[in-house]
Amino acid sequence: MKTIRQLAQERVLNDCILRIKRKVGDAWVVVTMDPRGTRIVSSLFRMIDITSNGVALVENLLVNRDPLPSMDAIYIVSSNPQSIDMICSDFADKKNPHYKRVGIFMTGIADNQTVQKIKNANLGDRLLAFEEMNLEFLAIESYAFHLDTLSPLRCLSSQTFHMTPMHAETISGIISAISLLGEMPQIRFSQDSIVSRTITKELERQLKTLNEQQPGLLKTNGPPTTLLVLDRSFDLLAPLLHEFTYQAMAYDLIELNSNVY
User: Fold this and answer.
1) Which of 158, 153, 167 is nearest to 199 (CA)?
2) Shortest CA distance to 156 belongs to which of 168, 144, 140?
3) What is the C-alpha to C-alpha distance for residues 113 and 149, in angstroms, rounded to an integer?
4) Which residues 6+ apart lie within 8 Å of 183 measured at CB?
5) Cβ-based neighbour number of residue 33 at 10 Å
6) Using an 8 Å Cβ cutoff, are 106 and 77 in contact?
7) How far apart are CA 85 and CA 87, in angstroms?
8) What is the pLDDT of residue 248?
9) 39/6 Cα distance (integer angstroms)
10) What global pTM score does this model have?
11) What is the pLDDT of residues 72-89, one digit of tens each?
12) What is the pLDDT of residues 237-247, one digit of tens each?
């Protein structure tokens, strides 16, 4: 059985990069990413893993870039309005496009506004693909991932709980991980936690919708998978303990950047 990290790597490499490479033949391509796309891809690959698959250059979407009108490009971006506007601006001038042809892959769900902006952009026959990767998490290890949310502790432990954009982002990340694994989980949660109850209710609703929209995506046969939904109050001591592992020691003693020394 493949790990969640292997499945995520295959999603980016096979379904995005190599798919566009098959369409453009032997030509080198450019990979252009926004900060969210960069975080997700960097958690899965080293730079050599990308460039050894026919990628000549990896660019930051949000900085000034030299036009490369003779090269095809692959965008890996979130649905952040700034990122979508930057893609559209790359092709604002029909006579002087930034790239020759493009494949656009969204890290998450492309909302109606995003789809409309891409539809109205001057892409035409230049658009090789426009799809959702549905990777809204960082697969940092073979059997572990996190959602890369900032300061979630207070929002996920409040007793006066109400849904916020951060909660929606958390649910979206969990749904994307479940869809990648392809298994319908049995969800268990703490009855005493309003956070767990509310998150679980929304997870169940979205999983039901996903199963109706894409029948067969989530398998129900085989050994059952269990998803536990707990808030931080379930175990208050864990954040105060220091892990006795080589990994924790490496972070203490060595200056690491994205798990790289």
Assistant:
1) 167
2) 168
3) 24
4) 218, 219, 222, 225
5) 24
6) yes
7) 5
8) 77
9) 17
10) 0.86
11) 999 999 999 999 999 999
12) 766 676 667 77
